[in-house]
Amino acid sequence: MIEAGPDTAARLGSVSSGNALDLRGVTRMFGALAAIADVTMTVRPGERCAVLGSNGAGKTTLFNCITGDILPNSGTIRLFGEDVTRFPPHERIRRGLRRTYQISLLFGGLTVADNVDLACRGVSRWRFSLLRPRRGDPLLARTDELIEAVHLTRARGRLVSELFYGQQRQLEIALALAGAPRFILFDEPAAGLSPTERRELIEILTNLPRHIGFIIIEHDMDVALRVAESVSMMHNGRVFKEGTPAEIENDSEVQALYLGGAHG
């Protein structure tokens, strides 16, 4: 299991009491269309939550509002007690928020190790340094730690363009872990993965440090329900059902809307 990074203790010491994420009445309009409407959601520190729903339910728009890629028309977003509703993305990153995307955003011409090292340095105090890292550099050790955590040790020196698709998704998780995050948004990490790769993804997500909470958007119910402790179902831009994985899996409304009957 991956251990906390060198600055984790300082970060955790500054975490305010209360919830990791608080959404209150978050609404985002595109013209006359409400992509999300009056979304209220609470995630505790270290909690793992799944947000499920069909295409067009508003899941990605919700993520975009949380990260600051777009701003809500109304409502508030609080991260560890701080109102970040109008903050730009980089300010939310500084406060411990990370995200992966549906489409891989990687440097294909660099190695796995180079990608992870750049991610670690990009959120460190040495991000503007032009000096070549020396042996014993703590960020080099952190790079190796993250690569091991996402099961890519054997691919450490390979170009990203040569990786299998599933390995690229694993690498994205390593990048999201750079800089001791406190909360991560995973946007469909199992999309396009084989059954074997899905099992490996479940193991990676399950073994994340317990102080890191996350929300996962996922169409693969088997993945989502195995890694989440709580589930929010979205429909037409609204949260219409919340519960444990077992409660959601056995809910008749959920089965009728999304599963077409009982989920095996």
Give the end-to-end Cα distance, rounded to a whole number of Å: 30 Å
What helical percentage do the residues reach?
25-40%
Strand content: 15-25%
CATH superfamily: P-loop containing nucleotide triphosphate hydrolases
Number of domains: 1
Shape: globular
Major beta sheet summary: 6 strands, mixed
Folded structure, characterized:
Keywords: ATP-binding, Nucleotide-binding, Transport. InterPro entries: AAA+_ATPase, ABC_AA/LPS_Transport, ABC_transporter-like_ATP-bd. Pfam families: ABC_tran (PF00005). GO terms for molecular function: ATP binding; ATP hydrolysis activity; L-isoleucine transmembrane transporter activity; L-phenylalanine transmembrane transporter activity; L-valine transmembrane transporter activity. One of its GO terms (biological process) is L-alanine transport. By secondary structure, the protein is an alpha/beta fold. The chain has one domain (about 10-260): Rossmann fold (3-Layer(aba) Sandwich). The protein is about 35% helix and about 20% strand. Strands 6-7-8-3-9-10 form a six-stranded mixed β-sheet, with helices on both faces. Helix 7 (about 195-205) links the parallel strand 7 and strand 8 (about 215). Helix 4 (about 110-120) crosses helix 5 (about 140-150) and helix 4 (about 110-120) runs parallel beside helix 6 (about 165-175).
What's the quick description here?
This protein is an alpha/beta fold. Helices cover 33% and strands 22% of the residues. It has one domain: P-loop containing nucleotide triphosphate hydrolases (Rossmann fold, 3-Layer(aba) Sandwich), CATH 3.40.50.300.
